[in-house]
Amino acid sequence: MRERSDSTPEGGGAPAVNGAWVSIFVGDDHPLIRLKQALDWATITEGMVTQWRRAGKNVDGGPGLPWPVALYVPLLVLMWLKSYHARQMEEYLRESVVARRFLALPDAELKPLRDHSNIARAEAALGAEGKAAVNALVIKTAQQLQFTDGQTLSADTTVQEPAIGYPNEPGILKGLAERSARALRKRKARGVKAAKAGIEQARRIYRSVKEPHLFAKTKEEKTKLLAAIVAQSEARRALTQEVIQHVSERCGRVTQRAAATWNRRVEVSSTLIPQIKPWLKTGRVATEKSIHTGITAARAITKGTGKVKLGMKWLLNRLPGGDLFGRRLGARADENQMPEEALKA
């Protein structure tokens, strides 16, 4: 089975379908363009790069693919200004000429744009600290341009659950296998036998992940097939741990970063698989069930028998002129405390 690409397709000249290029003028007086021109991009970039460096991203020109700082810095700022999640932002970038100008992407240039999963990882790597620092700079500049007066705050104190597609357990395990296999390929090139075995194990998971939906006709058959995928995932985790043991302090930075990625995947699988096993037996969703292997803060929130909400809790604040900032909350945040929390923001 072919692996899904991390990017939208590359442009290779003229589009493959019939159509025509359309040029749309975006004036310098557009609010987003005025804000872009006024922002202190050097400070914003420095703050983001610091957080990405802590997260192990290749921002310093080390071996391997460089982290696209020049793309992600304005992209994330624009996404927060629009109050979009990663999937909405991917679509907005494809369709909006204002977004293209904000990111300095010419309308007629078929430059590939990173997809929603990469956008989400870039945001997650910043952490709450990095995002808060950037938001503070944006709000200050917006006040100077009189987009907002900063005197009136409107806060949505009802905990929000952002739209996250319903995660089936085989799909989550496939995502975990994909992320581990990408890092294992680097060790396969070094001749580590366990890495090759781990990649083959991941491929078996790829092939079997759709079987519960395509071939199982009864609940018992689906449960049996999912149990087999869980067993394969446990075997893959054991192989990954074996590969980690081959990484010493003398290995290069690329290998050390890959080992850190493997350790995170082992930690995720060590939490996820014990949550799936009881569900196979009882049909009940575990408390704070993991639902995304890339965004580990996303949790399932049980609301009683048969009722589950999916996502992450947010407190959204609005200053006159538009949504400018928000904050992720704990999984069991008390809504009675939200008014006070809104003022702290």
What are its keywords?
345 residues, mainly alpha, 3 domains, three-stranded antiparallel sheet, 12 helices, disordered N terminus
Secondary-structure element pattern, one letter each: HHHHHHEHHHHHEEEEEH
Note the beta-strand portion: 5-15%
> What strand line-up does the widest sheet have?
1-5-6
- End-to-end CA span: 47 Å
Tally of discrete structural domains: 3
| SS element count, helices | 12
The largest pleated sheet is described as:
3 strands, antiparallel
Calculate Rg over CA atoms: 22 Å
Overall shape? globular
Count every beta strand, where a strand is a DSSP E run of 2 or more residues. 6
Strand pairing plus helix content: what structural class?
A: mainly alpha
User: How much helicity do the residues have?
Assistant: 40-55%
Overall average pLDDT: 76
- Uncertain runs are 1-13
Structural commentary:
This protein is mainly alpha-helical. It has 3 domains: 31-147, no CATH class; 152-162 and 312-345, no CATH class; 169-309, no CATH class. The chain has helices at 31-38, 41-54, 69-81, 86-95, 97-102, 116-144, 169-188, 193-208, 211-214, 219-244, 253-282, 338-344; strands at residues 154-160, 289-290, 299-302, 308-311, 314-319, 322-328. It is globular. The N and C termini lie far apart (47 Å).
